[in-house]
Amino acid sequence: MKKIVLLLSILFISILYADTAKMQKTQVLGYYRFMAGNYEITSIYDGYSNLALDTYKGTDAAGAEASIKKEYSHVSGSGKDFRLKISVNTFLINTGKDLILIDTGSGNSAGPTMGAVRKNIEMSGYKPEDVTKIVFTHLHPDHVGGLAEGGKPVYPNAVIYVNEKEMEFWLNNPGFKQEFKDILNSYKNNKKYKALKDGTEIVTGIKGVLLPGHTIAHMGYEVNSGGQKLLIWGDIVHGYEVQFANPDVTTAYDYDQNQAKETRKALMAKVSKDGTMIAGSHLPFPGIGHIESNAGGAGYRWIPVQYIPLD
Ligand SMILES: [Zn+2]
User: Fold this and answer.
1) Would you tell me the crossing angle of helices 178-189 and 164-171 to the nearest 10 degrees?
2) So what's the pLDDT on residue 15?
């Protein structure tokens, strides 16, 4: 009797759910593409990092949490376990002659929520071998970790570009992972490393801009093509929810808190006035948009790009 009841229940449940579609539980591919003048830009998603509230300096945890909740951002936990999920983005620029990757993401240095850059470059239609130049904003693990896998270069045909001071700082830093030092030194020794300074032109229409503070010589990259301007600003912001509302807030990751703050404030004041398009490593994917100063108040508003086909 029990068996019959069980069989009938299974039959009943099967009928009930027979036309229910199976959920896919997968996201759209991790890239977003647009044109900046004649240059094709592809945002490449590496993954996300979980930031605790005490990452933010110059605000209390309650203030930071309130700013985050106001934006309905992706969070988990509460109290000491509260975490904000921030994007890790890299950018691929096709100039028609060069395929330039700005930062390499985390590779396998940061756990399962990150390290998708190589896969997403492939999904976007390119191969790692197609990359001719890799340009770094700075050498933190979430930016340099994807340069090698198992000690071997992921982008075998690329030359790397790093700010001179940034490169020497990390190569001589005892806390910097030996595997990162090894791969960077191999590029250096094989003459596949070009030293950058403020204002260095990488190719026509793309030049480095020193934006120091987050690291000793953190760089941004200005892309000028066909009358359009894009600033790839690296790690000027970690959590737009908190630092757009109050640009004075710094993070535990900043090398020089005061310099990081001054750089961010000056840059935000400038780009909110001149309408420069921004690409950020830790702005919500695809990390592209504009900045507007808040009407009648302090701080700024982030205006993300909208989806549109390229034709
Ligand atoms: Zn970063």
Assistant:
1) 130
2) 60
Compute the distance from residue 142 Cα to the ligand 1 centre, in Å: 5
CA distance 195 to 160: 9
With residue 188 as reference, give the H or E element that holds it: helix 178-189
Beta strands in 110-253 (DSSP E): 133-135, 148-149, 152-153, 159-163, 193-196, 201-203, 206-210, 219-225, 228-234, 250-251
Report the C-alpha gap between 291 and 99 in whole angstroms. Answer: 27
Q: Which residues contact 28 (CB under 8 A, 6 or more apart)?
A: none
CA–CA dist 39, 53 (Å, integer): 38
pLDDT tens, 137-149? 999 999 999 999 9
Ligand 1 center from residue 26 Cα (angstroms):
25
| Residue 100 and residue 135 in contact, taking contact as beta carbons nearer than 8 Å | yes
Distance from the alpha carbon of residue 207 to the mean position of ligand 1, in angstroms? 20
Distance 260 CA to ligand 1 centre (A): 13
Ligand 1 mean position, distance from CA 77 (Å): 22
Identify the DSSP state of 104. -
What kind and span of H or E run contains 93? strand 83-94
CA of 214 to the centre of ligand 1 (A): 9
**Per-residue model confidence as pLDDT tens digits over 6-37:** 676 766 666 666 678 999 999 999 999 999 99
Q: Is residue 289 within 8 Å of residue 302, measured between CB atoms?
A: yes
Which CATH number is correct for 31-304, 3.10.290.10, 1.10.3720.10, 3.40.50.300, 3.60.15.10? 3.60.15.10
C-alpha closest to that of 242 among 100, 71, 107: 71
Structural domain boundaries in the chain: 31-304
- Is the Cβ–Cβ distance between 239 and 58 less than 8 Å? no
